[in-house]
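ugh ok fine here u go
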Amino acid sequence: MNKKLVGHTLFYLILALFGLLSIFGHSGLLKLFALSRANNKLRTHICEAQQKNKELEQEIQRWQRYPFYKEQMAREQLQLAYPDDIIFYF
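structure:
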């Protein structure tokens, strides 16, 4: 009976050790959850970067296709004007 008790105790200790290692070990559940959170953050960052990329591609297309857009940006952002334009300052 004593050998049986020692055997069961040893079995449960080893089982507990494997359980703890599967949760807290190098590749345990905590690490898995941390990697999952990091993966979600990276996916969000990628989606934001893709959206920004689409916006920039549209901006490039406007610059290439519409001459009036170039003039509008020069007037608004660079505050340029033709020599015969009358400029009003408010």
